[in-house]
Amino acid sequence: MSAFMPVTRSTLHSPLWLVPFDDFARQVRTAGVQVRLERFDEQGGGWVRLDDRVTRTPGGALAFPGLGRRAEPWAARPERHRALVTAPGYQALYPADDEPFSAALTGVEFLAHPWNDTHPPAVEVAPRLVRLLPATAHPYPPGTRTVHGVVRDATTGAPVVNALVEAWGRTGQDGAPWHERTLSDTRGAFRLALRWEGERASEHAVEETFRLEATERPGRTGALAVHLPQDAERQHVIEIREQ
C-alpha cells in the first residue's frame, strides 16, 4: 500500500466581495450584473482598465479571487482599485449606507493587498452591499406610478449627472415609513417611482403631495413639491444650489 500523500491546494483570496442589491425589489440581484475592474496608475495619474473577470458565488456575491497574488508579497505594496457595476435598467449607488452621498463617486474603491499561499492578505474583507437604483429606462411593473424630470444647476442651468433623487413619507393606514430613490442620468434626467401615499390635506382629499429632494453632494441640494394626480405628466425641474 502506498503512503498517504497530502494534497497541496491554493486557497484564493479576493480583496473585494460585492453583493448587488435591487433597491426597488428589495432583494439581492446578480442576473445581468456586470463588473468592470480598474487599477489606479500612480505614474500616469489615471485609472487603467483590467481584464480580470468577476466570479459569481453561490451566495450571490461577486468577487475577484486571485487579485493581489504575488510571488513575494512582502516586497509589494497594496494597489488601489475600483469596481464599476452596471446592470440593464439600473444605476449603482456607490457610497455605502453609512457614507454621505457624492455624485462624483463613480465606483467602489478598495485596496488589493499582496498575498500568496503562505502569506495571507494583511486585512480581512467583509462583503460590500452595492445598491442598484432604478434608472430612467427601468422596466417598472405595470401600474407603477412614476414622476419624471431633470436635475439642473441653479446658476448655469447645466444638467447635474448622477444626482440622488429621493422622496420619503409614511403610509396612511399604519404609518410605516417608505423611501423611494433614483439617480439622474448623463442628461440629468430622472424617473422616480411613487408607490406609496403622499400627504393629504384631509382624510378624503384626492390630491397627494410629495416632496422630492435632489443631492449632488453634502451642501449642494435642491427640492420641489409634486402634487398628484395633476402633476403626473409634467416634467419637473429640480435646481441644485449651495445650501
Descriptive keywords:
243 residues; mainly beta; Immunoglobulin-like; 2 domains; seven-stranded mixed sheet; six-stranded mixed sheet; 17 strands; 0% helix; 42% strand
Descriptive overview:
- This protein has a 7-stranded mixed sheet with strand order 13-12-15-16-17-11-14, with no helix packed on it.
- The radius of gyration is 23 Å and the shape is elongated.
- It has no helices and 17 strands.
- By secondary structure, the protein is mostly beta strands.
- The N and C termini lie far apart (80 Å).
Task: Describe the secondary structure blueprint for this structure.
Elements: E1 17-22, E2 27-28, E3 34-41, E4 46-49, E5 55-56, E6 62-63, E7 79-86, E8 90-93, E9 108-112, E10 128-134, E11 146-153, E12 164-170, E13 177-183, E14 189-193, E15 208-217, E16 220-228, E17 235-242
Parallel strand pairs: 1-10, 11-17
Antiparallel strand pairs: 1-2, 1-6, 3-4, 3-7, 5-6, 7-9, 8-10, 11-14, 12-13, 12-15, 15-16, 16-17
**CATH top level class name of the largest domain:** Mainly Beta
Helix content: under 10%
The number of domains: 2
Instruction: List the uncertain runs.
Output: 1-11
Give the number of helices. Answer: 0
What is the residue-averaged pLDDT?
A: 91
The gyration radius over C-alpha positions equals 23 Å
Briefly, what is this?
The protein is built from no helices and 17 strands. By secondary structure, the chain is mainly beta.
